[in-house]
Amino acid sequence: QVQLLESGGGVVQAGGSLNLSCAASGIDYGYNMAWYRQGEGKQRELVAEATFGGVTNIPDSLRGRIAISRDNYKNTVSLMMNSLKPEDTGVYYCNLKTIPWGSIYWGKGTLVTVSS
Question: For FRET with 99, which of 12, 34, 56, 60 sits at 20 to 30 Å CA-CA?
Fold first, then answer.
């Protein structure tokens, strides 16, 4: 059974940086990994994706402040966030999508709070 475990959330001042990590277990085939976030009263949105083929996808609104990397040997994905703003506050979820079947798994989420 695939499990995702996030770590690294916390409280940071505006302008600061924070790194999140996600470790996947129970998987032995190809997969894409991504980070999503959900602010209070907002819909869940994509923050960054690292595909099995080595492509990274980051929304234009976050590009320049966000970076994502994955380690295929360790089955981990990391999210590096800089110049954080209060609107970056939310629960950040690790997401895994298997290739080619498309099964989707979510972590429990880790809270990021950016104080002004």
Answer: 60
